[in-house]
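pls ignore typos typing on phone
S-adenosylmethionine + seq
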Amino acid sequence: MQNLLKTEALASLPDRLPVTIAGRTRRVYDLVAGVYPLSTMFFHSKAHRCALSQSGIRNGMKVLEIATGSGEMFRRLVQANPDGTTVGLDISPNMAARTQRQVCREFPKARARCQAVDARHLPFKDASFDAVVCCYLLELLSRDDIFRALEEVGRVLKPGSAFTLVTIGQDTDFFNRLYHIAGSAVPAFWGRQIEQEVPKYLSECRLHIEHDRVVRQSGYPSRVTTARRRR
Ligand SMILES: C[S@@+](CC[C@H](N)C(=O)[O-])C[C@H]1O[C@@H](n2cnc3c(N)ncnc32)[C@H](O)[C@@H]1O
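k done
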């Protein structure tokens, strides 16, 4: 697998997160796991709804969510897929455990599990999922690791299946400035915005964009992109 920085256009841009700080990210998200649902409620739930409807996920599929956080999107996926299998992962053991607990409580009969796994190395066979979803993770990975994670997505997706990605929008100067300050203060939590590079990342990884839209919640913009793995 070729994981080095791919396009020359991207390689020439400076990256504010040249190295993934996964250890720090895991510790920060472990710490905030108990209160993280608030952030989803105020900023992410609209994008989650949009991602689910855009993803084409139907009951009976085998679905993977990467970087579940505290499990709000994961619970939507399990609810939409009661007769299928829904697998989740997050690098933070506390986030993964919280997601697993909630799903067991709310959907005791569902085939759903969530584990602590790093998105850069997915422990699944090639072409084993009908759909993959990932919300607000790429901001936290270096460029090389974004490619690494997206190559893994392409590998585990069945040919012709869809990947739905949510990234933090970059279309408002004021919001971008705020995000820049937050990201400089606590990079392991906020990372940096990468939304404008998404089309290049996806096409380099042979994921062809089919749907793309921006939604806004409490002033927070999210880009919801669905791309299909080429056959
Ligand atoms: C901004 S939160 C988003 C959580 C959730 N997807 C949502 O929409 O609210 C980012 C999540 O990515 C997880 N994460 C960061 N790096 C990761 C990696 N390399 N592999 C898997 N998960 C990772 C963090 O632990 C955190 O839960």
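Strands lie at 62-66, 85-90, 111-116, 129-135, 157-168, 207-217, 220-229. The CA atoms of residues 139 and 147 lie 12 Å apart. more later
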